[in-house]
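Standup notes
- HV: blocked on the assembly model, inputs below
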Amino acid sequence: MTFVPYAVSWNLTGRCNLACDHCYLDANARTCGDDGELTTEQAIDTVGQIAALNPESVLILTGGEPLLRHDLDRIVGAAAAAGLMVVLGTNGVLLDRSAARRLKEAGLAGVGVSIDSLDPLIHDTFRRKRGALSASMQGLAFAREEGLSVQVQTTVMRSNIRDIPLIAQWAHHIGAKVFNLFFLVCVGRGEQMTDISPTQYEETLRWAASEKDRFPGMMVRPKCAPHFKRILHQNNPDDPLLSTYVAACRAGTHYLRITPHGAVTPCPYMETQAGSLTRTSLSAIWADAPELTRFRRPDYEGKCGRCRYRLLCGGCRARALATVGDPMGEDQWCVYEPVGVEAPITTVDTDAKFGVKGESSLAWDADAEAILGKIPFFARPMVRMGVERRAMAEKVERITLEYFRRVSPSPRMFGDAAPPSPVTVETATDAAEIPWTPDAKERVSHAPEFVRPGIPKLMQKRACERGKTVIDSAFLSEIRDESMMLASRRIKKLGIDELSMDAWDAARKKLFAKSPEKIQVIDTITELLNGREQKNGPIVERFSGYMADSLGKKLGWSKEARLRMERAPAFVREKAARAVEGFARENGYRIVNEEALDKALAQMPFGAMTGASPSPDRT
Ligand code: SF4
Ligand code: SF4
């Protein structure tokens, strides 16, 4: 097997609109110009060289801030036309709707936006720009709305380590496909920064291992954190992720970085230059440069050289270089201590990483082979080897579609390209049921019969969307209020401004005349309401409150949030309410509740002036 890059990370420019504390590139301010950076022609030529080396690799365009390249659309278009999967790594601040649309049209597959914290004080301080968090969130929303796959990327640091679970929940809430965790390697501007301790690193990776598949539709994945594989193996030696390249170091074996000036290095955190594209072809550098080829043999020093996980993990080579001065030295940010010289563990992935032949040795049916062909190139050899190994152990002589579906590792990791049996929100919800508190369950048992069967499914779905770990009575009330408010808004849209039993008749005539099923539902509800008039008072009162609510234009407001907004002076109220509603909608809230209000106000320059800040009794 020859070594080919599965992924190429390309710092398109050193210029940046921000000046983040942790930037490995020490990117300059926008005004510093682009002296000597690859020209458009050179960039297009580079795209061709990457595609010639491996037309199916993933191309990560980043910076600096790649959106500052005026020719970004052209570079994306050329790369997509050459068959590469192109993704953008950006701080998101400059990602407006038109840029997102243009890039999507040019062939961009996805966008990863860096979010350090949901607290503007932390994020904006770190990014050295007021309003950066708000702008980045807006960029994510535009990307998602224009049909790009979005990823949230967070660098784990002391200042945000406690917030990581919250950011994961939020990322899931806004529809991110992946929540990527990055870990600092102290180079560039980050060199002066204090990294997290090895124990904190370990704790974060263990958290990621426990949460990796908890969010339906979103993966939690550490990047450039090879120890993650050691932890996965310690937790479960049969974990399917051990057969993939997740988190592993591929520097020089299947990964390289290109700098803005065309230098090739093993990865973004290693400055060691293997050559320059202005003088040498990429294929020659990749094939011959010792700065890359040295990583194709696992001859590690120190404890990494004695460790049973040395093929599976192997440590971060950039961190070894930064800390002990030797790229083949030990990774001192690992808490594992080998005992003597341990026998290495091998997996399908370690074979793939170190060049064991990945050719087929068993026959495959055409339909199974076709599904395999849809799996991204970089994962395909590993999947093929894994399936064939298992087939041979089970004395299966031919890979049929049925067999492939049964044994392929976690279909979820392949996203849309996975073999059939997609994991939808509904099926994932069934598979990982969120527990109920006894009192919440008890409440549901008293719900009217015609709504009761639908409640568990709805609650599971909403709990998943909002990252809840338990369904309790308060959450039940929240969703009930939300549903009532949405119903009120629909009723108002029918031209009914006051809730009374007559309204049902009006609705029956006006809306549902052509739908016997809906008429039946209305009849059931009115019959029930007529039979329990005593109990209807509080419900009718609550509904009436929502009906009378004239604050919301696009979204309804919870009573508590509305009361707070009504405290705002008249001259600012309408504008603030509109901005809050806009924020709530962009961030996936179905109504404006106090949580949405707090977050929105924190983002607004005039938020503190509205008088809608929390009451003294709220923390
Ligand atoms: S000692 Fe090295 S190879 Fe072993 S788990 Fe730690 S970082 Fe990985
Ligand atoms: S050396 Fe470290 S930072 Fe570079 S690719 Fe490997 S794990 Fe990632």
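- HV (later): unblocked. The chain is about 45% helix and 10% strand. The first strand starts at residue 7 and ends at 11.
- Next: hand off to the docking folks.
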